[in-house]
């Protein structure tokens, strides 16, 4: 059970510099994701291909909305999955059934996001592609 803290958390003043600095931390995290995670390379390739197809097929604003969402959900899931994996390895690098289950659950989230993104991409890009071919 959580016990209340002895003293209330110190009140930090709002600072635009602190907010801007947190953007740099987030950018550092994304750079680490792209540099170190092989799955992220696949996501990067898929994202670039989807963007290129969107431009080539001159999809509508509504189409772009779906494409941006599809790309974002995959990166979001991969970033959280990687964070969970690294937290698990930091907490317990040994073989542990509970760690395995936690990692499987996080990986399941990435799978759902990837399937949804593939379907969204297909539904968004296939109609303009077919309209050009046929
Ligand atoms: N410490 C552990 N204890 C038990 N099972 C683990 C452990 N680490 C990994 N596993 C199992 O192996 C699977 C893959 O884990 P891993 O951390 O290698 O993920 P990955 O997606 O292959 O990682 P990577 O980002 O290196 O590609 C997990 O989903 C889990 O089933």
Describe this structure in words.
By secondary structure, the chain is an all-alpha fold. The chain has one domain: Helix Hairpins, CATH 1.10.287.3610. The chain is 81% helix and 0% strand. The protein has helices at residues 16-36, 38-56, 61-91, 97-133. Helix 1 crosses helix 2, helix 2 packs antiparallel against helix 3 and helix 3 runs antiparallel to helix 4. The longest helix is centred in the C-terminal third of the chain and has 37 residues, at 97-133. It is extended. Residues 37-39, 85, 95-96, 99-100, 103-104, 107 line the site of adenosine-5'-triphosphate (ATP).
How is the secondary structure organized here?
Blueprint: H1 16-36, H2 38-56, H3 61-91, H4 97-133
Helix pairs in contact: 1-2, 2-3, 3-4
The chain binds adenosine-5'-triphosphate.
Adenosine-5'-triphosphate binds at residues 37-39, 85, 95-96, 99-100, 103-104, 107.
In total, how many domains does the architecture comprise? 1
The computed structural class is mainly alpha
Helix content: over 70%
Bound molecules: adenosine-5'-triphosphate
Number of strands: 0
Enumerate the spans where pLDDT stays under 50 for 5 or more consecutive residues.
none
End-to-end gap: 64 Å
Number of helices, where a helix is a run of at least 4 consecutive DSSP H or I residues:
4
Question: How would you sum up the major sheet?
Answer: none
Q: What global shape is seen?
A: extended
CATH topology title: Helix Hairpins
Q: Return the CATH architecture.
A: Orthogonal Bundle
What share of the residues does DSSP label as strand, in percent? Answer: under 5%
CATH class: Mainly Alpha
Rg (CA only)? 20 Å
How would you state the average pLDDT, rounded?
Answer: 93
Order of helices and strands: HHHH
